Amino acid sequence: MIRSLVLLTVVSGCSALTALNDVSTPLDVYELRAPVDIQATTRRQLPRDVIIELPSTSGALATDRIMIRPNALQAQYLPEVRWSDATPVMVQTLMLRSVEATGAVRYVGRQPLASHGDFAVVTELVDFQAELNADTQTATVQLKLIVRVIRESDAKIVASKTFRASAPSASTETQILVEAFNAASTVLFSEFAGWLPSALSP
After folding, report:
1. What is the CATH number of the domain that holds 154?
2. Which residues pair with 31 in a beta bridge?
3. CA atoms within 13 A on the CB side of 167
4. What pLDDT does residue 115 have?
């Protein structure tokens, strides 16, 4: 698997935990890339048009800042860095590109080609953060995405599944943490895109 972590500007040094910086401060930008080697549950392309809707999430994740939790009740953000998009938008993009990589459906997009698609993928982003370990020098990235597939013709939920992935980070430095995000997201979106065709099958 080709490493798919992209830094869009120069990387800053070590990152201590902090709250949101002043909005005028230039921030280094990180982007996660979708996996490409995905084993779909079908070998043929399905004649389906699929809409990936923007995930719903909590206010703490509805930002482009990279979240890290010192404990279960506290949310902080890495200083001087951000994701390339707000987290829900980035997740939607990763879902789209992962499904496209399988070649398993006729069309997948954010908007339908006609008045509506055949199916809508509605998701809730529950976790997309790094959690500090007890030693406070290392962390574990935790991702959780609840997925529901809805048939547009009758608004029926035809399939649902919760996807989870985690990855250890040997340091709380930004580069190491983002590499752990990349590892966990590769697992999660590979599993999602591999599962989706079976959810769309008759």
Report:
1. 3.40.50.10610
2. 6
3. 18
4. 74
Task: Give the amino acid at 50.
Answer: V
Q: Which amino acid is at 131?
A: E
**What is the residue-averaged pLDDT of the chain?**
88
Q: How far is CA 32 from the centre of its chain?
A: 8
- What DSSP assignment string belongs to 45-76? -EEEEEEEPPPEE-TTTSSSS-EEEEETTEEE
Distance CA 95, CA 106 (A): 15
Cα(13)–Cα(9) distance, integer angstroms = 13
Q: In the numeric block, which tokens belong to residue 77?
A: 């953000």
Q: In the chain, where do the E strands start and end?
A: 5-7, 28-32, 46-52, 56-57, 67-71, 74-77, 81-83, 105-109, 119-132, 139-151, 156-169
- For residue 94, which of 168, 163, 27, 157 has the smallest C-alpha distance? 163
Classify residue 37: in a domain, yes or no: no
By CB neighbour count within 10 A (0-12 exposed, 13-18 middle, 19+ buried), where does 106 fall?
middle
Note down the domain range covering 183: 5-32+48-200
Q: In total, how many domains does the chain have? A: 1
> Mean pLDDT across the stretch 131-146?
96
Distance CA 15, CA 172 (A): 7
